[in-house]
Design goal:
Helix content of chain A: 55-70%
Shape of chain B: elongated
Order of helices and strands of chain A: HHEEEHHHHHHHHHH
Structural class of chain B: alpha+beta
Strand order of the largest sheet of chain A: 1-3-2
Number of strands of chain A: 3
Largest sheet of chain A: 3 strands, antiparallel
CATH superfamily of one domain in chain A: MetI-like
CATH class of the largest domain in chain B: Mainly Alpha
Radius of gyration of chain A: 26 Å
Distance between the termini of chain A: 17 Å
CATH topology of the largest domain in chain B: MetI-like fold
Distance between the termini of chain B: 55 Å
Structural class of chain A: mainly alpha
Number of strands of chain B: 22
CATH topology of one domain in chain A: MetI-like fold
Oligomer: heterodimer
Helix content of chain B: 40-55%
CATH class of one domain in chain A: Mainly Alpha
């Protein structure tokens, strides 16, 4: 088991390293976007980049050094010329900066000279809060609906639940958001049509949670319901459940003590993975509803062409999805030793 | 029938039994049922699944529409024409009350002068009037605290400025000439409503100032909190003060500032009047009985009839709201303003038999014979002065002629902001999405099949290496791949295709690999191998055909997911450019969700229908090809 865990984590780390490296190089290969702001801000930006090793600084024009970026205004009779360091060299320095200083870069245009970490930290709270609430809602509802459908298998209840789940799982999130907003915000006017600002009264803020939580939970409610139903149906037809009934357990006892426990084996890991996966949030929901989370940061930084921030945001999404995969695999492995990566086929 | 009470009642004898084979010869008989192939069987199973058949039917309709509609419809989806923007969906003739191109607008400010809703500057009151199907104006006006041009009444709220709280605030009329003998009076009505805007009614004084010196004033009302009407005989006061001739002067309200907050007084009207008749226009300009109008005049013409050192605003200005149903098509395509047509055009119409016209008689001779004639009546004509030939004709006709239509257009789903037909645009976008989806599917399917076959068939280190490669590439979220590709290569069709292919093939590859692991150890493969088949033959002839059904059916779902990806990117402002895109259309229309929900709802319904049908269809196919998986998710 220990070997398996190490192998799985090791693979994820290697994958993360390769992906982040590739992403970094690809982002750096994009055309250079100049930082905004007056000269003092520009100089502050370039000097920091110089200290971090991403640009060269000379006190005279030296065209042989890479792409010319910026010339600072005359100060004490001299001005500095800044040139771009080749991308692969930037890459090695970036690795060094991360390992030694945990430095992930600075914003250029979106919030000039603010470090990526600060920007992410100021926004990730909204995303986490929203997603935790939606998981708290969706897991019990989804599982209960799934159990209900499985227990009433092939009856009207089951058909209704399955059809509704089928329909809602197919509808893309932005369509669902459009419908919900159209009905509850514009036609009925019950809920705010965008995320209330931090200064809004508490009741307003609470109302602001309803639509995002609803839209985020809907997909997971449906998938949990479907998953639970399929698992429980399979367990219900198994021999050991028949044995449990034969030895005298009531249907209720058999389901609670045996069927549910076993059906939860594959469901539980997926809840864990979901908990991590949701940290990525929903970019579309956040940008449509104006939630200042890290999903919207992706769109915003893209709009500002602030590629350093965009890179960090992408790195977060990548890491989260890899982490979710690791947790899923490991928890499967822990709970059910039959399912292990690389197990003999 | 005999009753058997005990088992002893039944007794068998030897004669009761006959040997079956004694006379007959038993041979293989031909099967009565027709032989069936795997695909036929799958088709039969698919046809049994009703929801999948319905889904396939809907899918076929949608795909058919996506191909046919953009080809058949000649509606405009390329040239921006904002005048035709936001037309309501119209399927039936106007007046049927449902889906007839009318739109209900609620709580719109009512323009009491022109007796039409104050919709916008785009339409003249006359055009609006003829397009309105029904209108209900609120019986009671609504008080608002803003100076609307359509408002009336209300009171001027004259308040101290919080920023300079230690200074008194002044509200003064423009200087005008008064004479002691002219019988000049000043009347003002104040309001005593307390607590407006969380401010306090203040202490004030009113005086008549006749000179530049602050002391040159005659007190009308000394510092007080008395809000009763003011009546002041200026002439009498001037006479009393010893004036004999013309005097320039003004009425000044002074409001005392206070530490406790913003102070205000409310002024309903202020009227200067005279019996002599001199300066009447000047006096009328500085008098007001309607506070809203006064505020609007001084705001719009920047003439400060009443200048103010504090804050001057309007309180309880009354506006009427109305609900009305407007025929959007009449508004845009209804009777247009007069248009001038050249003599050549008019002669063409006459030649075509659309109308008759004799310019010697004049406009009264115009007779419209055909609907294609752009004008309904001639308003004026211009004749060349020398030859007395017709130069041009000014006529009035339907607006759609002016916009290049032969008859009133009908957009069954309305138009968007650019005046594009939503129906055609949606299906043109869907066509792009479907083409993208199919292209991606074909490439990914082919590539994934080859990759998965090699990986699954050979196993071992090859498999390990290829699997790790997939793990790493698959670890990148698709949105990151797409974003990077678009940033580097621009958001055109090819980039989308490339980026979607980069992430799409791994699913097929993984499925193919699993299928190969499942089949490669089977006896028939072993048998073929012992007979000396090459790897290629084993893969192509034996393993692949057996696993094809499952692979295809699960890979078909790549098409809807491609459509979904394209739309998602459009919502992140990375949409497909240069071609009609479904996602971009939806994302652009999203901002009009509140005002024109039809622009979002219809594409959303098509999108949802498409996704549901594809999923049901895909599930049906999977169940048909692999009955053992039936019903599992």
């Amino acid at each position: 088991m220990g070997k398996y865990v190490l192998k799985r984590i090791g693979l994820a780390l290697v994958t993360a390293f390769i992906i982040l490296s590739l992403t970094f190089i690809l982002v750096k290969l994009l055309p250079f976007e100049r930082p905004i702001g007056d000269d003092s801000k520009q100089i502050a930006y370039y000097d920091r980049q110089y200290n971090l090793g991403y640009v060269y600084r000379f006190d005279r024009e030296t065209p042989e050094y890479g792409e010319y970026l910026y010339k600072s205004p005359m100060d004490k009779g001299r001005s500095f010329y800044y040139y771009m360091v080749p991308v692969m060299e930037q890459y090695t320095r970036w690795l060094g900066n991360i390992l030694t200083k945990w430095d992930w870069g600075y914003s250029k245009t979106f919030m000039p000279n603010v470090s990526a970490g600060v920007i992410i930290l100021s926004r990730i709270g909204y995303t986490i809060k929203l997603n935790i609430i939606s998981v708290i809602f969706s897991v019990p509802i989804g599982i209960l609906l799934g159990i209900w459908a499985a227990l009433k298998k092939n009856t009207l209840t089951d058909h209704i639940i399955s059809t509704v789940v089928m329909i809602f799982i197919s509808i893309p999130s932005f369509v669902l958001i459009s419908f919900v907003m159209s009905i509850f915000c514009y036609n009925l006017g019950w809920l705010p049509s965008s995320w209330p600002p931090d200064t809004a009264p508490t009741s307003m803020k609470a109302m602001g949670y309803i639509i995002p939580v609803f839209c985020l939970s809907f997909g997971s409610i449906c998938s949990y319901c479907r998953f639970t139903r399929a698992e429980l149906c399979e367990v219900m037809e198994s021999d050991y459940l028949l044995l449990a009934r034969t030895k005298g357990l009531t249907r209720r006892q058999a389901i609670v003590r045996h069927a549910l426990k076993n059906a939860m084996v594959p469901i539980f890991p997926s809840i864990l993975a979901e908990f991590i996966g949701i940290l990525g949030g929903s970019m579309i929901l956040e940008s449509l509803y104006g939630i200042p989370g890290i999903g919207r940061l992706f769109v915003t930084s893209l709009g500002y062409k602030d590629y350093d921030i965009l890179f960090v945001d992408m790195a977060i999404f990548t890491t989260i999805s890899l982490l979710a995969g690791v947790v899923l695999d490991l928890s499967y492995g822990f709970i059910d030793p039959r399912i292990r990566m690389g197990a003999k086929k | 029938m005999a009753e058997f009470n005990t088992r002893h009642d039944v007794q068998f004898k030897d004669d009761d039994f006959v040997l079956v084979q004694q006379t007959a010869r038993i041979t293989d008989t031909k099967l009565a049922t027709k032989p069936t192939t795997f695909f036929k069987d799958a088709l039969r199973r698919f046809a049994k699944n009703k929801s999948s058949v319905v889904a396939a039917f809907i899918l076929a309709i949608l795909i058919g529409c996506a191909i046919i509609v953009p080809m058949v419809s000649d509606a405009n989806i390329d040239k921006v024409s904002t005048t035709e923007g936001f037309l309501a969906p119209k399927l039936f003739d106007a007046g049927t009350g449902f889906w007839d191109g009318t739109r209900l607008r609620k709580r719109i400010v009512y323009d009491t002068v022109n007796e039409v809703p104050a919709l916008s500057d785009r339409y003249t009151p006359a055009a609006l009037k003829q397009s309105i199907v029904s209108i209900t104006v609120d019986p009671e006006p609504t008080p608002i605290d803003a100076a609307s041009v359509y408002g009336q009444g209300g009171v001027i709220m004259f308040a101290t400025d919080a920023a300079v709280s230690n200074n008194d605030a002044f509200l003064m009329s423009q200087q005008t000439t008064f004479t002691p003998a002219g019988g000049y009076t000043f009347d003002a009505v104040l309001d005593s409503e307390a607590g407006v805007n969380e401010s306090q009614l203040g202490e004030y004084t009113v005086y008549f100032q006749y000179g530049e010196n602050p002391e040159d004033k005659l007190i009308i009302r000394d510092w007080s909190r008395d809000y009763s009407p003011i009546h002041y005989d200026i002439s009498a006061a001037l006479t009393e003060a010893g004036f004999q001739y013309n005097t320039k002067g003004r009425v000044v309200f002074e409001l005392r500032s206070s530490e406790s907050g913003i102070q205000y007084i409310l002024l309903k009207s202020a009227v200067f009047s005279t019996v002599s008749g001199r300066n009447k226009d000047d006096l009328a300009a500085i008098s007001f009985t309607d506070a809203t109008k006064m505020i609007n005049v001084s705001d719009t013409k920047s003439l400060s009839y009443w200048s103010c050192s504090g804050r001057k605003g309007i309180h309880n200005s009354l506006i009427y709201y109305c609900d009305f149903v407007v025929d959007t098509y009449m508004l845009v395509y209804g009777n247009a303003d007069t248009v001038t047509y050249s003599a050549t055009e008019v002669n063409n119409w006459i030649e075509n038999g659309w109308c008759t016209y004799d310019h010697k008689v004049g406009p009264s001779s115009f007779v419209k014979l055909d609907d294609r004639c752009p004008i309904d009546e001639v308003v004026d004509q211009q004749v060349l002065s020398v030859t007395k030939k017709l130069a041009s004709v000014t006529g009035r006709g339907w607006g759609y002629h002016k916009l290049g239509y032969d008859e009133m257009p009908r957009f069954i789903l309305g138009t968007d902001v650019s005046g594009f037909d939503l129906f055609k645009r949606a299906f043109a976008g869907l066509r792009t999405s479907l083409v993208l989806g199919f292209c991606t599917f074909l490439f990914c399917f082919a590539f994934g099949l080859i990759w998965g076959s090699i990986s699954g068939y050979f196993g071992g280190n090859v498999d390990l290496f290829m699997e790790r490669f997939c793990d790493i590439l698959g670890g990148v979220p698709w949105i990151v791949v797409m974003t990077l590709a678009i940033l580097h290569l621009g958001n055109n069709f090819f980039t989308f295709f490339l980026a979607l292919c980069m992430t799409g093939w791994m699913g097929t590859a993984a499925r193919t690999r699993t299928q190969f692991y499942r089949f490669k150890g089977r006896e028939y493969v072993l048998a073929s191998r012992t007979l000396g088949s090459s790897d290629m033959r084993l893969i192509l002839k034996h393993i692949l055909p057996n696993s094809m059904g499952t692979i295809i059916t699960s890979s078909v779902l790549m098409i809807p997911s491609t459509i979904f990806s394209e739309a998602t990117l459009a919502y992140l402002n990375l949409g497909l450019q240069g071609v009609h895109s479904f996602g971009v259309m939806m994302a652009n229309n999203q901002q009009y969700l509140g005002l024109y929900p039809n622009l979002v709802i219809f594409p959303a319904v098509v999108m949802a229908l498409m996704m549901i049908s594809f999923n049901l269809f895909g599930n049906g196919l999977r169940d048909a090809f692999n009955p053992s998986l039936k019903g599992s998710e």
